[in-house]
Prior knowledge:
Layout (H helix, E strand, L loop, with lengths): L6 H13 L18 H6 L4 E4 L11 E5 L2 E4 L1 H21 L3 E4 L6 H11 L3 E2 L11 H19 L8 H18 L11 E4 L6 H9 L4 E5 L10 E4 L5 H14 L2
Helix pairs in contact: 3-8, 4-8, 5-6
Amino acid sequence: MARLKTAEKESKSEVVEAVNPRKNIFEAIDLESLELTMAALLKAGVHFGHQKSRRNPRMSEYIYTTRNNINIIDLAKTVERLKEALEFIVSMKKSGKQILFVGTKRQAYDLVRDIAKYTGNPFVVERWLGGTFTNFGNIRRRTRYMTRLQEQIAKGELKKYTKFEQMKKIEEAEKLDRRMGGIAEMRDLPGAIFVTDVEADNLAIREAIAMNIPVIALVDTNVNPAGVTYPIPANDDAISSLTMILAHVCKSLR
Length: 254
């Protein structure tokens, strides 16, 4: 599939982006005129679920009908649940608490990173690090180490090491940044997490539940929404659907 790029292609795209920085997706969206309507959600393909055979019984209340063997999500329920989630998100902002955005699927990568940067919140787009919540003290020590190492590199303080040692430290800093860069400024446990795929990021949800952190998540027709505090029934694969839902979240955090 198109989203399953090779490592070589990904590395090339990173080089291109470094030379010609990509504009944040949410800077190109007119958030002020964004309306939460069934018609807008329909146009974005939010209603398309998975095949009937993959239907999770616990999602039945959110399914309107089945067409051509595809479950169709009830957009009236999507509007209702999204409004509830947005009200909670606004309350998080007013209380000064962060929301950790999680989206490790390839098609969610740019969107999750962009909304987090646009709204000043932490994010995870690489593999979830076990213990991010349940062993937060250790994770925080690693991010502080990463930050110090990056500062040393930027200030040219590695010259006291051999070229080989310098290279290894630079490689370590790059690896840490890929895995932990998005949570470097997360000094405390977040007030909530926003997950774009319940199945792909189930470990993040389990840790959030263990630490009593509210979970906001897109729930497609094939997943079990149990454990999600604020479920948003929606297509969690199509970029148009992800963009639409996250644009509303972005608007609420402005």
